[in-house]
Design goal:
Blueprint: E1 5-11, H1 19-34, E2 38-46, E3 58-63, H2 67-79, E4 84-89, H3 102-108, E5 113-117, H4 126-138, E6 141-144, H5 147-155, E7 164-166, H6 179-185, E8 193-197, H7 206-219, E9 224-228, H8 233-239, H9 242-254, E10 260-263, H10 269-278, E11 281-284, H11 295-302, E12 306-309, H12 313-318, E13 325-326, H13 332-343, H14 346-360, H15 365-383, H16 408-412, E14 420-424, E15 427-435, H17 436-452, H18 459-472, E16 473-474, E17 479-480, E18 483-484, H19 497-513, H20 517-530, H21 540-556, H22 561-581, H23 598-611, H24 614-630, H25 660-677, H26 680-694, E19 704-705, E20 710-711, E21 714-715, E22 720-721, H27 726-746, H28 752-757
Parallel strand pairs: 1-2, 1-4, 2-3, 4-5, 5-6, 6-7, 8-9, 8-11, 9-10, 11-12, 12-13
Antiparallel strand pairs: 14-15, 15-18, 16-17, 19-20, 21-22
Helix pairs in contact: 1-15, 2-3, 3-4, 6-10, 7-9, 7-13, 17-18, 17-19, 17-27, 19-20, 19-21, 21-22, 21-23, 22-23, 23-24, 23-25, 24-25, 25-26, 25-27, 26-27
């Protein structure tokens, strides 16, 4: 390793007194000890109304309840050339319900994230499940400290098992010790010692051991039980030393007060290790089975202590095979017998200690740090945007197409109302009238051409598309109507969710790119009125279309915070769908495939790029990559998902009928993927898809008329569909514009006149 590796640790940090702070400090130091080229820094979480004299490696502190601090921390990390983030996750250390404020930081990061889960609940509330699922989705790797943690993450939270690494809690590297030598150094010579240490709080089960002491003392009268550790700071602020006093009173009532010693301070590491070295039996009497991680147990076990513990998850795994003794929760009788038996059998105790110490050699911090470094390397690799060239079956060497653009048929399909829905062959079909879907697409095409500086659609015609959209707006319902008869009468009071979303998409593009300033303001105002209702929508495509519109609208209106919120909400809803549905190698949002599938991936990619949320981009790329494997024939050409098999769960896509809308959506998504990754393999995939229009398809026939710009409505099983409706021609023309624009970006020396000639 020659290039410095910058690692940012996020979590509590010393001198804050808690187990996660200790873990963060120990792990960062262990990582730094691996190589002089590893440069750790810490983003420390500070609890409310507290301040700490943090060391120099803490570069920023997040006030637990201050949402802006989380966003600021993300900016610091993004701009600080950090290679990877190590997040210590525990619900209680971050602000917001169930610590959800940490999501603000994660969703703004553009750096690989490796998250260590310190608590994994078997019976989470819906909010806890949602928060941890989102943390996992933002993370490239997840680290747990026990196999039970991996099982819970996969079964309860839906995290893919290959994404999870099991790495034990680290421990100091100390030689196997003689407790009597350590006792003599601290004035405890000759006394059997029992030890429990850690921050004192009611869930630790200290009462059980105090209740067990009469039985222990009956067989070993000189035994001393030491409770080492300060009262938990939160408990101390809320109740003072009430809990500790209750434990003292309990010992007095049992007559064992002289055999129970409370040492009320947070000890430094050398002192702690001294106490562990001199104990004969270490006890962890936790009351909750759902204890995934115990640093106190790890330290004592790894140093070769004889351990008696309740069977919480971490202890159950660590103490198996005779490496410790397990007793039932809250059972003072069983606890007393286990401790007394160990104190009374030196050989058995020594054998248990040796087994624990030998097993603990894999837990020393230097070894654990290497495991974390390996996990971080896998995380960095996994977080790299997936390239099309990573899939050999998608490697293409096709040149970028220069698509001719002819508008004769497009003009023939329009009148002063708008664009007709259907055609019989190339003749406009008045009997089916108009729809807002196609007029929105026409407005979108006009906006794309305006942005590209390409002429061909006059202002009067663009105005007719805008007027159709305006007339489609039903103020009474807050929704757009869709279908209109040739007699200009609406056939419904409101259209589908998808048609509403598609109209917002067109309005967003018009807001940003229309050549006419008043029309841009009209589009912006109508978008603002029509966007909020989409929060009630269930259709994934309506959300995706809305996101595509928001991508342009938010660029034109960067201070519209409601729109920004809406964008995040819709993107998160798609992310939630993908998490629930994806399984194994199948990465998708729904159980089956339908129409304009690639728009879902495109929407997430562009939203992630606009908001700097890498998780959105990553999911958009992975789903698009999977979709491309479903849209490829055995011969390698593009095959659109057939309408005969929409939403057939668990079935392979049907090959027919194939429609242009699928090709156009895929081209747009591939070009968005290229924008995110700069991988020209995505350009090649877009070109391969565009060739579907011109003959590289299952029937080997061109669907377009290069002289008029018409486009057949698709491919039947036995022949092309000879009708040339609005959707087909608009999709083809939109793809021509997008391909030509990309060509211009890739070949900036192309004379403007030549580019115009393409039009």
């Amino acid at each position: 390793m020659t290039k410095p590796m910058r690692i940012a640790f996020i979590g509590n940090s010393p001198p804050r007194q808690c187990g996660i702070a200790t873990f963060t400090g120990d792990l960062s130091q262990a990582m730094a000890g691996l190589s002089e080229h590893i440069r750790p820094s810490i983003i420390a979480i500070t609890d409310d109304q507290q301040s700490y004299a943090y060391p120099a490696e803490v570069i920023f502190e997040i006030r637990e309840a201050e949402a802006d601090d989380y966003v600021t921390a993300a900016r610091i990390l993004n701009e600080g050339q950090f290679d990877v983030v190590s997040l210590q996750h525990e619900f209680g250390i971050f602000g917001g319900p169930d610590g959800e404020l940490i999501l603000k930081l994660l969703e703004h990061l553009r750096i690989p994230i490796v998250t260590t889960c310190h608590t994994i609940l078997a019976d989470p509330t819906p909010s806890q499940r949602r928060v941890l699922q989102k943390v996992a989705a933002c993370s490239s790797r997840i680290v747990v400290m026990a196999e039970k943690g991996r099982a819970l993450l996969t079964e309860i939270y839906g995290v893919a098992a290959p994404k999870i690494d099991v790495i034990p809690h680290g421990i100091p590297d100390r030689p196997f010790h003689d407790p009597e030598t350590a006792k003599a150094a601290r004035g405890y010579a000759g006394r059997p010692l029992i030890l429990t240490f850690g921050l004192l709080s009611p869930n630790k089960g200290i009462e059980t051991v105090i209740d067990a002491m009469p039985a222990v003392l009956k067989q070993n009268p000189e035994t001393l039980y030491i409770v080492l550790g300060a009262t938990h700071p939160t408990l101390l602020r809320q109740q003072g030393e009430t809990y500790r006093d209750s434990l003292r009173q309990r010992a007095e009532s049992l007559g064992v007060e002289d055999s129970v010693q409370f040492l009320n301070h947070f000890v430094d590491l050398p002192t702690l290790l001294d106490f562990i070295s001199m104990c004969d039996v270490y006890v962890t009497p936790y009351l909750d089975e759902a204890q995934m991680t115990s640093g106190t147990l790890a330290y004592s076990f790894g140093m070769g202590s004889a351990v008696v513990s309740t069977p919480y998850w971490h202890a159950r795994e660590l103490l198996k095979d005779g490496r410790g003794l397990l007793v039932p929760f809250g059972d003072a009788t069983a606890t007393g017998k286990a401790i007394a038996d160990l104190l009374g059998d030196d050989d058995a105790r020594m054998a248990m200690r040796r087994r624990a110490y030998d097993a603990g050699r894999t837990m020393i911090w230097s070894h654990v740090a290497k495991l974390y470094l390996d996990s971080m390397a896998r995380g960095c690799e996994a977080s790299r945007p997936k390239l099309v060239s990573d899939l050999p079956s998608l490697r293409m060497k096709l040149p970028l197409q220069r698509a001719p653009l002819r508008l004769g048929h497009f003009h023939a399909m329009c009148d002063d109302t708008g664009i007709f829905q259907h055609a019989v062959y190339s003749v406009p079909d008045r009997s089916h009238g108009y729809c807002v879907d196609d007029n929105a697409r026409a407005l979108l095409l006009s906006s794309l051409m305006s942005a590209a500086g390409v002429a061909g659609i006059g202002d009067r015609m663009t105005a007719s598309f805008a007027a159709f959209v305006e007339h489609a707006w039903n103020r009474d319902t807050g929704r757009f109507r869709n279908f209109m008869g040739f007699d200009r009468r609406w056939l419904e009071s409101e259209g589908s969710e998808d048609s509403h979303g598609r109209t917002l998409w067109a309005l967003g593009a018009c807001t940003l790119s229309d050549a006419d300033a008043p029309r841009r303001r009209w589009a912006s105002a109508l978008f603002a009125r029509a966007m909020s209702v989409t929060l009630t929508f269930n259709s994934p495509r309506a959300r995706a279309f809305t996101l595509l519109g928001l991508n342009d609208y938010c660029r034109a209106n960067p201070n519209d915070h409601h729109a920004s919120m809406l964008r995040v909400r819709h993107a998160e809803s798609l992310m939630d769908l993908e998490r629930r549905v994806s399984d194994g190698d199948r990465h998708w949002f729904e159980e089956g495939l339908s129409y304009e599938n690639a728009r879902l991936s495109q929407a997430l990619i562009l939203t992630g790029l606009a908001t700097n949320v890498f998780g959105f981009v990553e999911t958009g790329l992975s789903t698009l990559q999977w979709l491309m494997t479903q849209q490829r024939s055995d011969k390698g050409h593009f095959r659109a998902i057939g309408t005969d098999g929409f939403f057939e769960i668990g079935q392979a896509p049907k090959p027919f009928d194939q429609q242009p809308v699928e090709a156009t959506a895929t081209i747009s998504a591939c070009l968005a993927a290229y924008e995110a990754t700069s991988d020209k393999g995505w350009i090649a995939a877009a070109c391969r898809t565009f060739d579907w229009f011109t003959g590289s398809n299952d029937h080997g026939v061109s669907l377009v008329d290069p002289e008029t710009g018409s486009c057949r409505d698709g491919l039947h099983a036995d022949r092309p569909n000879e009708n040339r409706g609005a959707e087909s021609v608009l999709c083809y023309l939109i793809s021509c514009i997008e391909i030509a624009q990309t060509n211009q970006k890739l070949t900036p020396v192309l004379p403007r006149a030549e580019f115009r000639q393409l039009s």
